[in-house]
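request received
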Amino acid sequence: MSSTRSKILDTAEEMVRAGGYNGFSFREIATLIGIKSASVHHHFPTKEALMLEVARRYHENFFAALGVPKPARHSPEVQLELYCEVFKKAFQSSERACLCGVLTNEAEQLPDSVREVVIEFVQANIAWLEQALEKSPNDLNAVKRAELVYSALEGAMGVASLKQDQLWIDRVSEAVCLTTLSLI
Amino acid sequence: MSSTRSKILDTAEEMVRAGGYNGFSFREIATLIGIKSASVHHHFPTKEALMLEVARRYHENFFAALGVPKPARHSPEVQLELYCEVFKKAFQSSERACLCGVLTNEAEQLPDSVREVVIEFVQANIAWLEQALEKSPNDLNAVKRAELVYSALEGAMGVASLKQDQLWIDRVSEAVCLTTLSLI
DNA sequence: TAAAACCTACCTATCAGAAGGTAGACTGGG
DNA sequence: CCCAGTCTACCTTCTGATAGGTAGGTTTTA
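response:
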């Protein structure tokens, strides 16, 4: 409940989403929240530990917003729209790309533990989408559809943050909803 | 001509694709090609100048592989498959994500000049796809289709490099070709 | 044609600043 | 008193960048 601790996590998340793992420093976080870098080390001993907790928290929040897929209760259309909504909200919260999307594009230089968390995020997304879309009538199997949807939204979020244009996500979301579920 | 110069560009490109703009240094490039960092500065005075030339070269090579879209001569299907092929080849060349895709996810911390080159790359891709797809029968307009295709392939390339799995691009390419052109 | 001037590509040495991280001391509330 | 939270002070390593020098080739000019 230490408010400093969550301020550190908030600031770190924003900075990673702005410039990646190599784009933030203990000193800068400290300055932004008005403490010294040694105090940040008190809460998170290493950069890897801090990054790890930021990534885990992001994962949790993301899937909390998403909920459990309910293929029995909601149509694929409805669930796909919900999925797109969560990406839109994630973007709106800071006008920046997905934390794990950013980390994905630095994978090779990431500490192993962080890369694993990112991979888990991807797999959790695919699993969610597979369940949500499995009943849609389509000659593409659920895995391929899921991977397309996830790739498209991550890509769209990156471009939206590059161009500072929320409409990119809106248009790609619309296109993804229309095309993904429209095959015979 | 100067082989050192192109070695620097090659090495820098690989390092950026591995870890972004903040993921490479003059010293590391120099060490990898067997010279001193001051000699890298002789060829490229600043990091921004080096990054700029790497990005411009990548843009050129990418569109050289793509060629000019020929909507009169080739069907949208054929051209979309060609487009996916170029992404596949770009991945295969180093098992890494698209240079501009990586830079997209660091946009905020990039020098302005570099960010502009990245934005131009995105716009050139959309323009190419719009031309290639404009004749496809579809109730989605060409812009939305183009943005979906580009977002999906950039996203897929990121995940493919994260998971070191070329099949991600193959599957997303297949899905994108099937769904994008299949509406009434 | 020979000397002077210049250019290219590298080098050594160095800088100031920022990075991640550590040790030890201070402070205020339970 | 204890201890979480913060501080000062510092270390080492790396960063982008600069100054100045050297060897060798080319170009200009007297």
